[in-house]
Design goal:
The chain is an alpha+beta fold and 364 residues long. It contains 14 helices and five strands. Helix 6 packs antiparallel against helix 7, helix 8 packs antiparallel against helix 9 and helix 10 crosses helix 13. The protein is globular, with a radius of gyration of 26 Å.
Length: 364
């Protein structure tokens, strides 16, 4: 019997010190996605794969990719206790978990500060472009690994042209693609290109053919005899993985420590300015907590340290805020909290009550 095993891969940068001094290094863990959620969250279900303060994230991912794809030809042989027989296991990468900056790097994307800020689709551009029909249609155009791979190669070629710095910068701003795996190559070619294209008084200028030949020679030296594809983000060519679709949004930083945190900050400012914080605290302390995972909302702590709250506080506040501030804030702020409350409940829906309606069955 042959079984396929879906893996949840997690990578992030952490500190290796017990002290407060930051000693950044990257770690990779995997979990078996077939496990029930209650077991998946347990420490013994998480397997350590790799860690390094020196290797880049993409170098670590290349090693993981090679290990996973090796099992396609050489499956893992083990013993099935339930059926009392030897079986073969073929693991594959189901999703890659992480925070937004790390997932952007895994997708060869520039991140949320980019003009084209989404690593999954092509939404972005100027405000004028977003209002056009094309700008609207771009929201529904998904990125593909093949297209991103092609764009990375294009940026390398642009770095060998005259005015390469501006050309590469424009290509990044117009696509949102920035590959960390080849950034050293691009930077070196741009640096050398500037020196070669620069005109020096008293020295004959190099011809375009001579500059191109020098840059091609430098590129070959940087590649070290390996194909260019071996230096590009390995996840873009990983079999069975669409890195743009298979990096689900990390909702803690995106929602609770993103939208909710900053909306709470503005709301707290309005309440403080209107001298309504005491009323808010009294209502928060006395509100019915049935249905909330948190047995207490710690009203005194939330009000006293309103600028230093963490995810669990925002998760609870998002569900009760409309009942606390209905007459203390402008209507637009109240409507905003109502929408946030609905969103948070949907995002943290941890179980499916009617499983049968979600199952996919083949037609007879």
């Amino acid at each position: 019997m042959v079984y396929t095993v879906p893996l949840i891969v997690f990578m992030d940068d952490v500190s290796g010190n017990v002290s407060k001094q930051w000693n950044k290094h990257h770690v990779v863990y995997v979990s078996n996605a077939l496990l029930p959620r209650q077991m998946l969250e347990q420490e013994f279900s998480i397997r350590f794969i790799s860690s390094s303060p020196h290797a880049t994230p993409m170098e670590l991912m290349r090693g993981l990719k090679d290990s996973i794809q090796k099992t396609t030809d050489q499956p893992i042989v083990t013993f099935d206790v339930k059926h009392q027989e030897e079986v073969m296991l073929i693991p594959y990468n189901l999703i890659i978990a992480g925070d937004n900056p790390m997932q952007a790097e895994e997708c060869s994307h520039g991140g949320l500060k980019c003009n084209y800020f989404c690593r999954t689709c092509k939404v972005g551009g100027t405000n004028v472009e977003k209002r056009t029909d094309k700008g609207y249609c771009d929201i529904f155009q998904l990125r593909t690994p093949e297209e991103t791979h092609s764009q990375v190669k294009r940026q390398i070629q642009l770095s060998k042209l005259s005015g390469g710095t501006d050309k590469v910068k424009t290509a990044v701003s117009q696509s949102g693609v920035r590959d960390s795996a080849t950034s050293a190559i691009v930077d070196r070619l741009l640096e050398l290109g500037k020196a070669l294209w620069k005109r020096v008084v008293g020295k004959p200028a190099l011809s375009e053919a001579e500059v191109s030949a020098r840059l091609d020679s430098e590129l070959d030296a940087l590649l070290g005899g390996q194909p260019l594809d071996d230096h590009i983000n390995p996840l873009l060519g990983m079999q069975g993985l669409d890195v743009h679709k298979d990096t689900p949004t990390e909702i803690l930083h995106t929602i609770l420590l993103g939208v909710v945190k900053y909306f709470w900050g503005q709301t707290a400012y309005i309440l403080e300015k209107g001298q309504s914080l005491r009323i808010f605290q009294t209502r928060l302390e006395s509100i019915n907590k049935d249905g909330l995972n948190s047995p207490t909302l710690h009203a005194d702590y939330i009000v006293r340290y309103k600028g230093g709250l963490v995810g669990k506080h925002f998760k609870s506040l998002a569900q009760v805020m409309p009942y606390l501030i209905y007459d203390l804030v402008p209507q637009t702020v109240l409507e905003g909290w109502s929408i946030i409350g609905r969103l948070v409940v949907l995002l943290w829906h941890m179980s499916i009550e009617d499983t049968e309606s979600y199952l996919v069955s083949a037609p007879h």
